[in-house]
Amino acid sequence: MTKIEAGLIRRWLDGWTVARSLPEAEPVEPAGDGLRSKCDQPGREVEVFALRADEEPESVARLATAVATARQVTWLTVPTLRPDTVEAVVGAAGLELVQRSEWFMTTDLTEHPQHEPAAPYEREVRTEGPVTVVSLHAPSGEVAARGTIAVVGGDAIADRIETDAAHRRRGLGRAVMSALAEAAVSQGARTGLLIASQDGQRLYSALDWRHEADVLIARAPSSNH
Asked: Are 48 and 75 a contacting pair, CB within 8 Å?
């Protein structure tokens, strides 16, 4: 594979916005360069997602220039098979890297490994429409681990997979992912999509998720805002 397909990025973004209850992403001009999502999060009001970084590097330069001069606090997220090239391009536009080592990953959810939460943790699964939230509770009632998955067509996008620091190394991440996959398949999903932080990559790889591309995230220096 010489590039990550724009369609795959669009599919992930469609589910990510649903998982986070965000408005549908809008095209960035020139048409086809990227998509713009209004996040309204602290330190990140808008996020722009590059769609053609590998097939047309100039598109990243155009997006980076726009992000560098944006009035709102804007991040640029670039899935790519050429991270060194992208890093140079966004740096030349005056952006600074927030993350260089995230991964775009996929899996066949129908073959996802199954893991039950170890005692004494109890699992809670809540589904509202296309979105399922799985929580694992400690005996005290506190949430030890949780995650979200959103189903859009045949895809399911996993998001915000978290384990509390006091409960790590107990297989809770595997149990959360197993429950999310099971819920998504029951709603008709087959393909799992996610963007993995560096901390999550080992977990997802152990569950047979595949690395499709690196993901770089950049923004204008904070002094500009």
From this structure: yes
Alpha helices in 93-140 (DSSP H): none
DSSP secondary structure code for residue 4 in this structure: -
The dihedrals phi and psi of 25, each to the nearest 5 degrees, come to -65, 150
Give residue 91's Cα distance to chain centre: 23
pTM for this one? 0.95
pLDDT digits (tens, 9 = 90+) for 27-85: 998 778 999 999 988 889 999 999 999 999 999 999 999 999 999 999 999 999 999 99
SS3 content of the chain, % helix, strand, coil (to 5): 30, 40, 30
Q: What confidence tens digit (pLDDT) does each residue in 127-175 have?
A: 999 999 999 999 999 999 999 999 999 999 999 999 999 999 999 999 9
Domains (range + CATH), the chain: 6-105+213-224 (no CATH), 107-211 (3.40.630.30)
Name which of 185, 190, 177 is nearest 114 in CA terms. 177
How many angstroms separate the CA atoms of 213 and 79, rounded? 6
| Strand partners for 103 | 196, 214
Q: What number of other Cβ atoms are within 10 A of residue 182's Cβ? A: 16
Q: Which two tokens stand for residue 159?
A: 């998001």
Q: Are the CB atoms for 138 and 85 separated by under 8 Å? A: no
